[in-house]
């Protein structure tokens, strides 16, 4: 699914126990607003031992629903939970639980779905020489490539494409709704011969005499299940006349006499938008093919909150931000105006640990906190992208100063919880901005690449990353950055061209303009590769931009450094400058 609130929360944040007295907060004792959280320290070698040979039926529950799955037993022993609060792990423990009637309902519901989707053929005797997987949720680690599975890649819609189609849909006055496919995997067809023993305590009708079934539909845990389901869904839409772009294969679209319609898919979550009649027809078609839950007007996706207004569409992650601030005990911290402390160009302050510098204790959740922040930076918060990129480099060996920077980021989020991306109606124009920053890695001398693309002035694609080679001049660094921005623009032009063609949208966005503030770089691009003492060492691939200009896919124009919005992605800025760029890129005040 497109990571609903509960799923996303569980993914980025480990199980932990909050404690007001621990040694996680490594800051000054008088800093009362610092957050701290203590993970279970009782994680022994025995807990982490992988018992590949055994697998148990693992049952998990939450406030709203109960899921049943089977996973290797070692995956359930990472955290030592109190016995009084421990959930059952296998069927036998379930039966001994006071909640056994509730577990029975959950198990029955899951088995009914398996039978309804005809996931199995059988029962039968176990064929000689056949590979068996004795798990209700198949233990995919026991599958062998070229024998039990072949292709496993299953595409999911990327955040950039999703942001763009939401902005496009609102500009075209589409009705935007969402649907969920019930037990989606069970629709996928399995081509390989895979047999499974029915686990003890699980009763599949007619399997008492012959406790073996053949898996003919996608089942949780099989390596190919995700791909099998996606192929089933995609083929169903293609059979109904939908097209898709190879540049973004999870977006399907078509135009009929009823109007235009777009549908996107991320595992089992579908967003459907279009003219009213065309959208309703698409929903009816999907409902006839699959069991669907109609969730009505789109209000959230990918762990985000989505608000549709008369003027546009607002994508933010306020709810998610609230959760992670509370999770890391930073919800009452003092708000800050900058993601990182602005101390001139001293980015070495966030560099690698120095010789003899103490590292953080293992229980400090640096990686977990960074994962939560990365999710925000990649989806709705480009304003923290540079800061997160800097701190992500130290995940293997973080120190107190890195943890202090993480807490600074949380304080910044505490003061900007409601910030997001507001895509206004009435403007589909695309513009790009590229910039190379100061040295961001003092150990290697590498500079920072930053770019951002906007639709109607609001950011929908961005990147902040350390350059892969050491630039020998400012011009060299800007050429590298422009090359990266050009690659994104070329992909973008392919995707948007396919989309506009299929929807019959009459709006010319090409060539895509990329604004650059370095005059020498622009002159180099205009001239193409010229061998000289100053440039002969430049890798020719960085002149890919020149080819794309000549093909009419992009153009590069000079802009002042003060007007370059990509400045936000290459350096730590003073508070006023940071605020100015964030408001321009988000169309929302801080």
UniProtKB/TrEMBL annotation:
<keyword id="KW-0808">Transferase</keyword>
<keyword id="KW-0239">DNA-directed DNA polymerase</keyword>
<protein>
    <submittedName>
        <fullName>DNA-directed DNA polymerase</fullName>
    </submittedName>
</protein>
<dbReference type="InterPro" id="IPR013103">
    <property type="entry name" value="RVT_2"/>
</dbReference>
<keyword id="KW-0548">Nucleotidyltransferase</keyword>
<dbReference type="InterPro" id="IPR043502">
    <property type="entry name" value="DNA/RNA_pol_sf"/>
</dbReference>
<dbReference type="Pfam" id="PF07727">
    <property type="entry name" value="RVT_2"/>
</dbReference>
<dbReference type="GO" id="GO:0003887">
    <property type="term" value="F:DNA-directed DNA polymerase activity"/>
</dbReference>
<feature type="domain" description="Reverse transcriptase Ty1/copia-type">
    <location>
        <begin position="133"/>
        <end position="340"/>
    </location>
</feature>
């Amino acid at each position: 699914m497109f990571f609903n609130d509960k799923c996303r929360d569980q993914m980025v944040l480990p199980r932990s126990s909050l404690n007001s007295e621990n040694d996680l907060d490594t800051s000054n004792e008088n800093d009362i607003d610092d957050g701290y959280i203590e993970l279970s320290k009782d994680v022994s070698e025995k807990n982490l031992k992988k018992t590949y040979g055994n697998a148990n039926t693992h049952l998990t529950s939450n406030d709203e629903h109960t899921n049943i799955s089977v996973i290797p037993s070692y995956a359930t022993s990472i955290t030592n939970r109190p016995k009084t609060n421990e959930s059952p792990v296998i069927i036998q423990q379930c039966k001994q639980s006071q909640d056994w009637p509730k577990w029975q309902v959950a198990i029955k519901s899951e088995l009914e779905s398996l039978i309804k989707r005809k996931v199995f053929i059988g029962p039968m005797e176990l064929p000689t020489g056949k590979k068996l997987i004795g798990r209700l949720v198949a233990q995919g680690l026991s599958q062998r490539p070229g024998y039990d599975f072949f292709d496993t890649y299953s595409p999911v819609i990327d955040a950039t494409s999703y942001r763009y189609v939401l902005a496009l849909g609102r500009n075209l006055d589409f009705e935007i709704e969402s649907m969920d496919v019930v037990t989606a995997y069970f629709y996928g067809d399995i081509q390989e011969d895979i047999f499974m023993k029915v686990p003890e305590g699980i009763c599949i009708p007619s399997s008492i005499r012959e406790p073996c079934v053949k898996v003919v539909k996608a089942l949780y845990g099989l390596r190919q299940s995700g791909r099998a389901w996606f192929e089933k869904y995609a083929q169903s839409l293609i059979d109904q006349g939908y097209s898709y772009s190879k540049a973004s294969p999870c977006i399907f679209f078509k135009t009929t006499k009823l109007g235009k319609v777009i549908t996107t898919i991320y595992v089992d979550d579908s967003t459907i938008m279009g003219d009213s009649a065309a959208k309703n027809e698409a929903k009816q078609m999907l409902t006839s093919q699959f069991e669907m839950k109609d969730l009505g007007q789109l209000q959230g996706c990918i762990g985000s909150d989505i608000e549709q207004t008369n003027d546009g569409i607002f994508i933010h992650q306020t709810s998610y931000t609230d959760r992670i601030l509370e999770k890391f005990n930073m919800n009452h911290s003092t708000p800050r105006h900058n993601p990182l402390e602005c101390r001139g160009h001293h980015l070495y302050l966030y560099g690698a640990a120095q010789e003899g510098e103490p590292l953080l204790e293992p229980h400090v959740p640096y990686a977990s906190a960074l994962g939560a922040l990365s999710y925000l930076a990649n989806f709705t918060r480009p304003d923290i992208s540079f800061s997160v990129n800097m701190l992500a480099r130290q995940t293997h060996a973080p120190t107190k100063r890195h943890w202090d920077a993480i807490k600074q980021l949380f304080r910044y989020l505490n003061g900007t919880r409601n910030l997001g991306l507001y895509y206004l109606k009435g403007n589909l124009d695309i513009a790009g901005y590229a910039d190379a920053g100061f040295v961001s890695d003092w150990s290697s001398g590498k500079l920072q690449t930053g770019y951002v693309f906007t639709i109607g002035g609001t950011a929908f694609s961005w990147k902040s990353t350390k350059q892969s080679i050491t630039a020998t001049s400012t011009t060299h660094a800007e050429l590298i950055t422009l090359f990266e921005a050009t690659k994104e623009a070329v992909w973008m032009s392919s995707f948007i061209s396919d989309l506009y063609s299929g929807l019959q949208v009459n709006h010319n966005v090409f060539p895509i303009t990329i604004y650059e503030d370095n005059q020498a770089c622009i002159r180099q691009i205009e001239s193409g590769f010229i061998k000289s003492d100053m440039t002969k060492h430049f890798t020719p691939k960085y002149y890919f931009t020149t080819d794309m200009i000549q093909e009419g896919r992009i153009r590069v124009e000079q802009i002042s450094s003060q007007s370059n919005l990509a400045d936000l992605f290459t350096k730590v800025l003073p508070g006023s400058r940071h605020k100015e760029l964030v408001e321009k890129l988000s169309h929302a005040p801080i």
